[in-house]
Amino acid sequence: KAGVTQTPRYLIKTRGQQVTLSCSPISGHRSVSWYQQTPGQGLQFLFEYFSETQRNKGNFPGRFSGRQFSNSRSEMNVSTLELGDSALYLCASSRGSGSRGNEQFFGPGTRLTVL
Amino acid sequence: DQQVKQNSPSLSVQEGRISILNCDYTNSMFDYFLWYKKYPAEGPTFLISISSIKDKNEDGRFTVFLNKSAKHLSLHIVPSQPGDSAVYFCAASSYSGNTPLVFGKGTRLSVIA
């Protein structure tokens, strides 16, 4: 079974630009969650999509948005980039409900650098 | 307000000895706990989990202990191997799967040969 894939793996942008990151979950997984990882801050939850609906949302500004398509693939968008947005963005998929539905499988991440 | 805390940012252990990584949580609604391991430039990988109906779960060299009254869990790795050197994240959620995982900030384990 193929794992979670994220594209692109690396990205360099300048302040003020916008960026779109993509995530393809494991086949059959309906939940996709996005996290931001910065040094010393662990994994900060951005949002979760389940069956094309945002089910949970973390404490991030409205510049961070996402969506999920009918095939469960998800995109995350960050507008008006700031230097502090430089981070590793991780996508994780899971069955999303029921027994062991919380076990999330992570992609390799997209390393975003904002200059 | 950190609901999941890993108070040791780093830990060094000699190869062959036991590694003990600790995690505390504050939210009484958490009833499902997971440990993830993360190597540089890779996403975290699921290691082991435990539900609140148990106080111990074992998988090979990895054992997780849960003390509900103290809101504390620990991950034991015996024996520790150099390949175990990574960042370990503790996470908590509800068993229903409808609430997001809440992660600690991680503990960097270094196993010295």
Structural features, described:
The complex is a heterodimer of chains A (115) and B (113). Chain A is mainly beta. Helix content of chain A is 0%, strand content 50%. Chain A is built from no helices and 11 strands. In chain A, the strands form 2 sheets. In chain A, strands 2, 4, 5, 6, 9, 10 and 11 form a 7-stranded mixed beta sheet that branches. A 4-stranded antiparallel beta sheet of chain A has the order 1-3-8-7, with no helix packed on it. By secondary structure, chain B is mainly β. Chain B has no helices and 11 strands. In chain B, the strands form 2 sheets. In chain B, strands 2, 4, 5, 9, 10 and 11 form a 6-stranded mixed beta sheet that branches. Chain B has a 5-stranded antiparallel beta sheet with strand order 1-3-8-7-6, with no helix packed on it. Chain B starts with a strand and ends with a strand. The model of chain B has no long low-confidence stretch (mean pLDDT 93). The interface between A and B is medium-sized, with 31 and 27 residues.
Using brief descriptors, characterize the structure shown:
heterodimer, A: 115 residues, mainly beta, 7-stranded mixed sheet, 4-stranded antiparallel sheet, B: 113 residues, 6-stranded mixed sheet, 5-stranded antiparallel sheet, 11 strands, 53% strand
Architecture blueprint of SSEs:
The complex is a heterodimer of chains A (115) and B (113).
Chain A: E1 5-7, E2 10-13, E3 19-24, E4 31-37, E5 43-50, E6 53-57, E7 64-68, E8 74-78, E9 87-94, E10 105-106, E11 110-114
Parallel strand pairs in A: 2-11
Antiparallel strand pairs in A: 1-3, 3-8, 4-5, 4-9, 5-6, 7-8, 9-10, 9-11
Chain B: E1 4-5, E2 10-14, E3 19-25, E4 32-38, E5 45-51, E6 56-59, E7 62-67, E8 72-77, E9 86-93, E10 102-103, E11 107-112
Parallel strand pairs in B: 2-11
Antiparallel strand pairs in B: 1-3, 3-8, 4-5, 4-9, 6-7, 7-8, 9-10, 9-11
